[in-house]
Amino acid sequence: MDLGLHGKSVIVAASSKGLGKASAKQFAAEGAKVIISSRNQEELEKAQDEIRSVTGNHNVNYIVCDITNPTSVRELVLKTIELNGTVDVLVNNAGGPPAGNFDSVSDEDWTGAFELNLLSFVRLIREVLPHMRKQGSGHIVSIASSSIKQPIDNLILSNTFRAGIIGLAKSLSQELAPDNILINTIGPGRIGTDRVKHLDEFVAEQQDISYEDVKSKAESSIPIGRYGKPKEFANLVVYLCSGANTYITGQSLLVDGGMVKAL
Prior knowledge:
By secondary structure, the chain is α/β, with parallel strands linked by helices. The chain is built from eight helices and seven strands, in the order βαβαβαβαβαβαααβ.
């Protein structure tokens, strides 16, 4: 299937590693002009080299961006326009907030998670919309968590603000449909990334058991019986942002191997 992404201008936020980098790699493999971004220039340079080497696509560039800073977000989009002429695709992404339950998180934790995991998405969308509206098309995908369907223990910050992402996308799907701009949310389950490893290590420490036991227990709760691969997640991101998707909007989808049982 031709996904119609060759030459399209794509921004992937928080993409120096993890699911962001995996998504950027798949866009590059489809021939898109990809901008990767994060706060860490050294990690971005490594990611750029890796993606170019693996895909053979040298239209992969990086822009350092702190997505909690509105000026930095604005500059990310403006520099993308300078390099690629427009923005056809935006993939919203951010590192997860700290683990913890209600009694363990402070006002500063709540404020920080709001800035990182919800307001940053609002700001990125706000900056790309004029360009998408001008051309009469666009795709936006926001990476959230499986908690959009079923809350996760000890992740109250994530549970709260990931739910906000769904409300944002559902509302915008109505507002943006006349402009042919489609917006969806994808929740990863237990995908084999550094973030999931960190959370498993947190649980192991809290329960005074080994990391291996935590992982084994988690895998046993997944019908497919293993953690997902970043590429498996990225495949859905790329499809929803491609020319093959002309009618799916306002949806929240999981890539979780059947782990979440909630409807």
